[in-house]
What does this fold into?
Amino acid sequence: MAQLMYFSKVREQIGIGDETIDLPHTIATVEDLVAHLRGLGDGYNSALADMTFIRVAINQNHVGIDHAVTNADEIAFFPPVTGG
Amino acid sequence: MAYIAVQSEDFDLSAEFARIQGDDTDIGALVTFTGTVRDMTGTLESMTLEHYPGMTEKLLEQIATEAETRWPLLGCTIIHRYGTLSPGDNIVLVITASSHRQAAFDAAEYLMDFLKSKAPFWKKETTEAGGNWVDAKETDETALKRWDT
It folds into this structure.
């Protein structure tokens, strides 16, 4: 089961901070996962509509949208960071 | 060697000076940067900082390790707060220690540039009109590029 985590505006739009999902075997990359999540409802669709404004981390490392995903991963979606 | 803390509590500059200095007499230069909650228009009620527990600490450790390989540092401190803060409150503290000032100045700037673009924190401003997530600045990404060499 993959652990999904959402932060900031993405968390608010989707309505939850985290969830676990069993990735269908058709999902190989972050991009595939995003397409799958967009189909889960309006909140997901608006949160992940424009991926140029979304950053992705897998197992707590920044990655690009073409990165591979597996059921063993912790996958986080969030807006560009604004700390400091 | 680096001291990293992600905490809701405030930090105390003199206590952090004592921590980084210890009994190390090689240190000739300490540079500190403190970021505070800004209220440009007088309308800010509070600022809430959200972060990604686990990844935040890991990122800050990585940034500190990279700075220590680039400059001859004798110590480095990064403290970042989360939770709900008021205008004027401390947000972040960076201290770098070295024998000479240039390494300490450069390393402090490097740490802040990477922290601002990579560490998973998000600011939400609350005014009378409601809450608003702060947008990331393109200038922060640009600031990173000067360290590419």
